[in-house]
Structure formats: C-alpha cells, structure tokens
Amino acid sequence: YEGGVRVPLFIRWPGQIQPGSRCDTPAHFVDLFPTLCDAAGVKPDPAHRLDGTNLRPLFTGGTLPERTLFVTYPHYIAEFGTTPVRAVIQNRYKLVWNPYDHIEIAGDRVTSSTIHYVPKPRVELFDMESDPGEHENIAARYPELVAELRQRMEVWMKETGAKDVTPNPAYDASRPLFNTREGAIKKEREQKKVKK
Predict the structure, then answer these.
(1) Given CB 3.0 to 4.6 Å as the disulfide criterion, which of 104, 157, 167, 193 pairs with 171?
(2) Cα-flanking dihedrals φ and ψ of residue 162, to 5°?
C-alpha cells in the first residue's frame, strides 16, 4: 500500500525554506490547501471545515501536533484488480480495511491475462517503523488496537461524509471472474480452449 502513498514532496521557497532541509513528518494532499492559504496570507472561511493541516511550521524546523491520517478509496478498477479499501494511520501503526474480499464488476466480465486480482485479508495491521514494506500482518496480535482504529475510521467517515463502499447491484456471484486466483486461472483456461 505504501507504494501509492509514500511519495516524496519537494518544496522550494527561497528565503523561507532552508535549502537541503529534510522532514520526515507524514503529510497528505489535503494539507496543501491550508498551507498555500497561509503562505498567501489568506484566511479560509471558518464555516467550511478543512481536513488538512498547515505544514508551514515544518518549513522552519518546527513540528505538528500528532494526528491520525485517513485514506479511503471506494472504487473498483478491473484493469488493475483494485478493490475498495480504507486505511487509518496513527503513530507507527497502519490499519488497512478491505471491505470486500472479492471484486464486484458489472458488465460482460471479459477478462484478459493482464488483469490479476489477489484476495486480501479483510483486516490488516502493520507496524510502519519496523515493517515499512508491509510484509507482516500483525492484526491478530493487537485486537484492541484494530478495534480502536476501526472506530476512529467510522467516526471520521461520518464526520466528513466520505463515500462508503456500496454493493454493486449488477454483481453476479454465480459468474466469478476474479473472486479467487483459481477462478481466474480456470476462466483463462476456458478461454484458451475456445480459441483453439
């Protein structure tokens, strides 16, 4: 998961940011708007809630208060084998919640060998300090932390109106295409027989 979210951010601002300085504080796209508003001297309308945090203190070696970061991706993309996913990052831990353990794709369900789906556990917990590559799911060892982080995610989704995953009304479970690796292999074999 980190491949899509752990990306460097470079900011150049002569006279404001020391050249060559580094900061390891996690940031999010939603932080850019409040940061740019502050840099421009614009006060956002307090009637509109901003999800982000002003990053300017980091530009001069300061710190930010600890915060919990949330990510939700409510989409299916067949070509990439992606399914809806949610994540919450608090301190060193990241909880990943996979609401579905299969792909619900509407339509013809024509596949190709370029589409691959690997089923994932419903709940994954990673220690990002000792395991930044997210290789070891430690959710079973920390059930209380999993419950706490899931609760934080649910509260955040309600507060922000974040889209939730809804079942696909055109999904037909009797026509599995990507539900299992074995199902995908079987379908591919069937297609090869038809071509001969």
Answers:
(1) 104
(2) -60, 140
Residue 8 CB-density burial (10 A; 0-12 exposed, 13-18 middle, 19+ buried): exposed
Domain total of the chain: 2
The length of the chain in residues reads 196
Q: Is residue 166 part of a domain?
A: no
Reported as a pLDDT band with limits 50, 70 and 90, residue 4 is low
Strand order in the sheet with 85-90: 68-73, 85-90, 93-97, 123-127
What are 44's two structure tokens? 């956002």
- What's the half-sphere exposure (Cβ side, CA atoms, 13 Å) at 167? 5
Q: Model confidence over 64-95: pLDDT tens digits?
A: 988 888 888 877 665 556 677 889 999 899 99
Give 160-174 pLDDT, tens digit per residue.
888 777 666 666 655
Question: Which structural domain, as residue segments, surrounds residue 55?
Answer: 7-65
Mean pLDDT for 147-154 is 94
Residue 155 maps to which CATH number?
3.30.1120.10
